[in-house]
Amino acid sequence: MWIPGDDECMDQSGAVVELKGITKRFPGLVANDSINFELKKGEVHALLGENGAGKSTLMNILFGLYQPDEGEIWINGEQTVIDGASKAIELGIGMVHQHFKLVQPFTVTENIVLGNEPKKGLKIDYKLANEKVKTISERYGLKVDPQMRVQDITVGMQQRVEILKTLYRGAEIVIFDEPTAVLTVQEIEELIEIIRNLAAEGKSIIIITHKLKEVMALANTVTVIRRGKVIRTVSTSETSERQLAELMVGRDVNFQVEKTKRPPGDIVLSVEGLQMKGDQGKMVLDGTSFKVRSGEIFGIAGVDGNGQSELIYAITGMRKVQDGQVSLNGNDITNDTPRKISTAGVGHIPEDRHKHGLVLDFKLSENMILNTYFKPEYGKSGLIDEKAMDSVTTRLVEEFDVRTSGIYTHARALSGGNQQKAIIARELNKDPDLIIAVQPTRGLDIGAIEFVHKRLMDARNEGKAVLLVSFELDELYALSDRIEVMYEGKLVGEVDADQRDDERLGLLMAGNTDHDGERS
Amino acid sequence: MEVIKKIFNEKRSLLVPVVSIVLGLLIGAIAMLAGGYNPILAYSSLFNRVIGSSYHMGETIRAITPLIFTGLAVAFAFRTGLFNIGVEGQFVMGMTGATLVGVLLDLPWYIHGPLAVITGAIFGGIWAGIVGYLKAKRGVNEVISSIMLNWTALYLANFIVSKFLTDPGQQKSRAIHESALMNIEWLVQLMDKARIHWGTFVALACVLIFYVILWRTKQGYELRAVGHNPDAALYAGMNVNRTIVKSMMISGVFAGLGGVFEVLGVFGNQTIMAASPGYGFDGIAVALLGGNTPVGVLLASILFGGLSYGSAGMSFGAGVPQEIIRIVIGSVIFFVAAHGIVKFILKPFMSKRAKRKEAA
Lengths: 520, 360
Known about the structure:
Chain B: Its main location: membrane. The complex is a heterodimer. Chain A has 18 helices and 22 strands.
């Protein structure tokens, strides 16, 4: 068994990385303020902090991408200057970036050996390369087929290719930047297994994250960073999620929004037998039916890619359905235009805020009227009434605590959490009867998640109907009054929203029918 | 204030374009030296021709005017995420529309002139609208369809002119009726018969209209939203396809107006053309130079038009052949367009200056 915090082993081997008094200043802010950090051999050390706390900056310094303004870096007991990524690699430091740096049409092997190819004469010795890759991948339990093209493999596998890349270059210290942000639940389990294997083989691991669950599941030690300063370094066995959250945010955090029982009202949204053909001719919606009542949050669980996005496109009019019916407050809105549906009383917090939710190169004020600009309150003559636009924006920025340097700041310049706050502000300001929220907290830190959850719960308590689609089970259970599971274009079964049963949920999400557990 | 900010958006300062122009002129000078010509004489003849006499000044303005129109046309489409490479064809259709009305009808001046202008503008708009329609409804790439329509426009124009508007044996249309002409007679006389016409003022008005449409109207808000992010525009309930057609039509109207004033203001007739006049393609360079902003397009037109018109002075005054003149113009455009290179060259100077400031 793998024991977190095997103290004896650590004392023998000592620190492989020591950062002493690292300070890094950017114009207008101190990203790292005399940070001390120590990584011991064979340990998994989590670097925990909210977005913008300075953890990525610190790791970029360790990986040679930034130079510290002050402080010392000691690797294996020797003081060093890391003046570039190649120096870092030479010192045995590898980094698995959040956004993979892979050449899509290349094979796994080609990607791994890129820049460091074994040569036979003038040619690359692919046979040797393949073998090497295979050996490493077997040793650490990374199931990767070296001959596959990167564009054809899953995101989880691409990440394993990135891990292999660092190991191939002889990394003894591996930095993971937000490794689980892009993974499914199953892939996260596999990653946890891989990281444990790496540590057991004597590699030292640093994980940059803001997810508490992962810290507790993976790390031996955790260093909490807030606003560029180390708040505390503790062993995970001596702390709790709650304590870490407080250290990270700097105040008491409400994990669980208060969910009072309240009787649901009238049916607001009714979806009946929706059928939609996908791009490849397969049915992406295949008879989806459900109802959402006022004053309740209806959660849809499921693995990504089972028709959740298409279902939302169908309801909001962004894609046409071939068959079935969508009604809002008893009125048929099937295949109406997005504008008609939106003005009929639907607010939509979209899954991809950069693709759909915002025009990133528009000013914040312009984004705030994105789906209401045509209304007479923003100008009757065809000209935009900028005063009205600005005053609405000012009010919403205030009310929803959107942190921005001004209402004319481009949406691109806002942090993810504030972008999401802006979208929520805009959608709730329409005073809709139905709120559709898809993955509303993806990529947000604890403070922002708390805010989003509270706003959705408030809306429910005001008698709005809320349709919540999420891949985060915690979120679904925290908010929903009812939860159903979506699989291959239809809802396959309801689970009790008050009595959490992950096993049953997992079976439903994997496509086992409700009744006898057989594969449908 | 907003307008001034727009000129310098894309994080560009005035310094970079100025340095770009100087670098371009330097490279041009090297080319001239290599060819055994005197660059100082050549450049002084260039400036002499541009600002030397009231006639030349007037003619320079004449050369700049169509570039403002075509530059605005390209920039407008670009703001909506479309690359309108068909400005050339829309320009020719604008000429043809104006010539048709100007030659065939005989009306009082206060109707005839405006009607000819509007007809030409509509011809250009429809010609671009076809491209927009094909893209919106059939997904045809606008670059391909508009290149094809450039040729179609050229030969269609030649056909119309030779079939309906030309006397037998002539290579150009009958003269456009006096009542439809757009030249400004008293200014023409004042500037030694330089061909000054109302188009210049319309072009300046279009610079303003360009700005107002895009940044002050709801329509422009839609156009920009579609240009920046069509997915978000769809989410916001905008009709993306209709917006594409609209944007192309407005762009085509700008292009068409350019053609209109060439026939109504400058030539007074339309020739049967062996090749299209090229203002549309120059418009792409102008839009690029001007960073797709209205004032930027105006400034770029002045630069481009001045260089093109003044270049004739280089060949008269210093005997520089046309090929080398194109190198000079080309290198100026190259450096302005590739401002990344200029910034790179400027970087050591800038950091030195910054350091000196720090030390002081």
